[in-house]
């Protein structure tokens, strides 16, 4: 481990000597200077990690030197040395970037403790910054996979809305298109990047708990509220609150969110005074909000408020030219996660992936590659581990029945498939889809996973279409 270099600057010989000997004994590399001129010269040639700097020097003002040194090396750690009579100057020094200060006369052990503590704080800051950078790169990579015109427009909008820090954003698109990743990209490219990013799934939290989750409560607000609790808007101070599945938010909560968006104010449950938040709000939904407004299920004023800055994510089937890039990205990712050594995807496999419609979008593609990578033992990803709906292979039913005309009806009257009949006057595809979903759910006793597999679609797609056709209640149950 590299030894830390410390420059001691003080015009009193005894202080310089005492501090130097103490720090050398503790393993540091130390130089000293008795005035400002000597300090400037040694700063350039010695390049210290830390400086113990006296505020009062015979030829210079320690405060001016502090600003000069920090201007040349922002990472320099400075501890000011000051007489008790200069306490106000010490406070000013902290504002100018000093890490700490020690007052004369001082205890050498106290100074050593301050030195170690200052280095430890800087190490933690650097470590934190490193991990933030790693996370930022991860989410940037996840988002910036794609080169089709529609995704280029998405990337441009991410940059625009990231720069508009005070604006609420609406992200729309089908399930699995990457709305959360875009929300994180906006956060990480904004001035809020170093503050919290907190996601709330408005469809997953019951109405009775959602307000408490977002706004918190005062002690005694309800029976079990034995102590005050902060809500998400309070915990996300200075950061971003991501309200996913906003279309599922109850009308009563929509009014409260509108208040937060418009004047940055909210009130804890049981509270008497308004709280103020500076968190940015990003929203997302896979639903048709204008249609929900017409149906009276979504507030028009909230929709118009959040619709000013909108990012629409295309279906994966509309950006198939990006599939090879996404596949290679996921192969690299799962090579790392599962210790695989897949070097390429064979041509047949890529062709199958390109020709599939991906109703579950990028999420379904990711899950497909993950499954194949977990099973693949070689260096080339083949189609052997792709599921049947992608390869075109289907499991044969135990009994094969041809659709037949229903008993008592002429062949020209109707066509029967289970309980579903095709009238001679025709029927809309939406009604066909709705009936097939009902049939599949009934066949599997409401098991959505099995029903989705039966219909060759992802569970997310099935749930979306169940909502679309009114096959679920307010709690998401049949």
Description of the structure:
There is one protein chain. By secondary structure, this protein is of the alpha/beta class. It has four domains: 5-125, Response regulator (Rossmann fold), CATH 3.40.50.2300; 144-312, P-loop containing nucleotide triphosphate hydrolases (Rossmann fold); 316-391, Orthogonal Bundle (Helicase, Ruva Protein, domain 3), CATH 1.10.8.60; 414-468, Homeodomain-like (Arc Repressor Mutant, subunit A, Orthogonal Bundle), CATH 1.10.10. It has 19 helices and 18 strands. The chain has a five-stranded parallel sheet with strand order 2-1-3-4-5, sandwiched between helices. It has a five-stranded parallel sheet with strand order 7-10-13-6-14, covered by helices on one side. The longest helix has 36 residues, at 108-143. The radius of gyration is 32 Å and the shape is elongated. It starts with a strand and ends in a 10-residue tail after the last helix.
List the helices and strands and how they pair.
Elements: E1 5-9, H1 13-25, E2 29-33, H2 36-46, E3 50-54, H3 62-72, E4 77-83, H4 87-95, E5 100-104, H5 108-143, H6 149-163, E6 169-172, H7 179-188, E7 197-201, H8 207-215, E8 216-217, E9 229-230, H9 232-235, E10 240-244, H10 251-263, E11 265-266, E12 275-276, E13 280-285, H11 289-294, H12 300-306, E14 310-312, H13 323-338, E15 344-345, H14 347-355, H15 361-375, E16 380-381, H16 388-391, E17 414-417, E18 420-423, H17 429-443, H18 448-454, H19 459-468
Parallel strand pairs: 1-2, 1-3, 3-4, 4-5, 6-13, 6-14, 7-10, 10-13, 15-16
Antiparallel strand pairs: 8-9, 11-12, 17-18
């Amino acid at each position: 481990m590299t030894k830390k270099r410390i420059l001691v600057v003080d015009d009193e010989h005894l202080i310089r000597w005492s501090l130097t000997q103490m720090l050398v004994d503790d393993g540091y590399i130390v130089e000293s200077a008795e005035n400002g001129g000597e300090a400037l010269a040694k700063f350039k040639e010695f390049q210290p990690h830390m400086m113990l700097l006296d505020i009062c020097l015979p030829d210079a003002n320690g405060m001016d030197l502090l600003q000069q040194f920090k201007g040349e090396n922002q990472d320099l750690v400075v501890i000011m040395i000051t007489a008790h009579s200069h306490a106000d100057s010490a406070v000013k020094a902290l504002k100018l970037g000093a890490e700490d200060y020690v007052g004369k006369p001082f205890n050498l052990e106290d100074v050593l403790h301050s030195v170690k503590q200052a280095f430890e704080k800087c190490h933690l800051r650097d470590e934190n910054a490193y991990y933030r950078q790693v996370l930022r790169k991860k989410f940037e990579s996840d988002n910036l996979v794609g080169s089709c015109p529609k995704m280029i427009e998405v990337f441009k909008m991410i940059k625009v809305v990231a720069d508009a820090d005070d604006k609420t954003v609406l992200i729309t698109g089908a399930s699995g298109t990457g709305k959360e990743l875009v929300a994180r990209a906006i956060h990480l490219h904004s001035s809020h990047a170093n503050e919290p990013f907190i996601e709330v799934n408005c469809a997953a939290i019951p109405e009775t708990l959602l307000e408490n989750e977002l706004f918190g409560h005062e002690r005694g607000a309800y029976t079990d509220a034995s102590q005050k609790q902060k809500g998400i808007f309070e915990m996300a101070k200075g950061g971003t609150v991501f309200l996913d599945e906003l279309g599922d938010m109850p009308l009563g909560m929509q009014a409260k969110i509108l208040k937060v968006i418009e004047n940055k104010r909210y009130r804890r449950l049981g509270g008497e005074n308004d709280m103020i938040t500076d968190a940015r709000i990003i929203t997302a939904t896979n639903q048709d909000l204008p249609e929900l407004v017409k149906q009276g299920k979504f507030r028009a004023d909230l929709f118009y408020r959040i619709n000013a800055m909108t990012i629409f994510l295309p279906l994966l089937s509309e950006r198939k030219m990006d599939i090879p890039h996404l596949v290679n990205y996921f192969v690299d990712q799962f090579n790392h996660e599962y210790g695989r050594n897949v070097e390429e995807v064979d041509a047949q496999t890529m062709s199958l992936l390109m020709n599939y419609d991906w109703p579950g979008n990028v999420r379904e593609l990711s899950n497909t590659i993950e499954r194949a990578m977990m099973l693949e033992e070689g260096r080339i990803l083949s189609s052997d581990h792709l599921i049947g709906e992608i390869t075109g292979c289907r499991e044969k039913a135990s009994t094969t029945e041809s659709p037949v005309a229903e008993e008592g009806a002429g062949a020209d009257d109707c066509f029967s498939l289970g309980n579903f009949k095709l009238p001679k006057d025709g029927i809309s595809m939406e009604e066909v889809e709705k009936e097939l979903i009902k049939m599949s759910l009934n066949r599997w006793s409401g098991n959505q996973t099995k029903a989705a597999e039966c219909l060759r679609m992802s569970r997310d797609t099935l749930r979306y279409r169940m909502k679309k056709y009114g096959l679920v209640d307010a709690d998401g149950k049949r």
